[in-house]
Amino acid sequence: MLSSFFEEMEAQGIKPSSDVLTLKAVKPDPFVAEKMQLESSEPVYLIRKLMRANGEPMAVFESYWPLEIGEVLAQYDLTTTGIFSVVEDALGIRLGEAEGTIEAAAPTREEARLLKIPARTPVLVKNQVIYSSDGKPVNIVRLAYRDDRYKVRVRMLRQTGRYICRGIPASNP
User: Fold this and answer.
1) Does an H or E element contain 23, and which?
2) How far apart are CA 151 and CA 146, in angstroms?
């Protein structure tokens, strides 16, 4: 199920919040430009946040949006409101599906500092491309989660050939 950090935490009875770190237009790197189907000279909007669960650091969120969407998102209070709800409810963009990966990785220096973990402690990194319901790529996301507070539950159905993947916290922070 495609859900936001805020939706995942609320479903577990955990209070989500975030600290906004960056709101700005940037030149996309080649990966972001390709996945968003943009020319490398077309700016995108970067939103970086420290995601919290019950006030405790849980993940570092880095998200790229088409410029016109990002500029509107930046006008909202993103500390207590999930981005998906703004995109769908305020902007009328229906999110359809995402594809991505989840893997263990070393945190950047800044991620370790923000998450309050030792520099060599692995994080779980979720990278995904999110598409609108009409199939257009609208968001590239990288989330670096504390591995001691987050796990992924996967349910696979052989007869249908589809799977359901949902992130859940490892413990209540």
Assistant:
1) strand 16-26
2) 9
Question: What domains, with CATH codes, occur in the chain?
Answer: 5-169 (3.40.1410.10)
Give residues with Cβ within 8 angstroms of 95, minimum separation 6.
2, 84, 87, 88, 130, 131, 132, 133, 138
Whose tokens are 């052989």? That residue is: 158
Q: What tokens does 38 get?
A: 């943009």
CA dist 18 and 166 (Å) reads 20
Band of the pLDDT at 172, cuts 50, 70, 90? very low
User: Tokens 């669960």 — which residue?
Assistant: 53
- pLDDT, one tens digit per residue, over 74-87 is 999 999 989 999 99
What pTM did the predictor assign?
0.87
Output helix, strand, coil percentages for the chain, rounded to the nearest 5: 20, 45, 35
Listed residue (166, 132, 171, 159) closest to 3, CA to CA: 166
- Look up residue 29 and give its amino acid: D
Cα separation, 20 vs 147, in Å, equals: 22
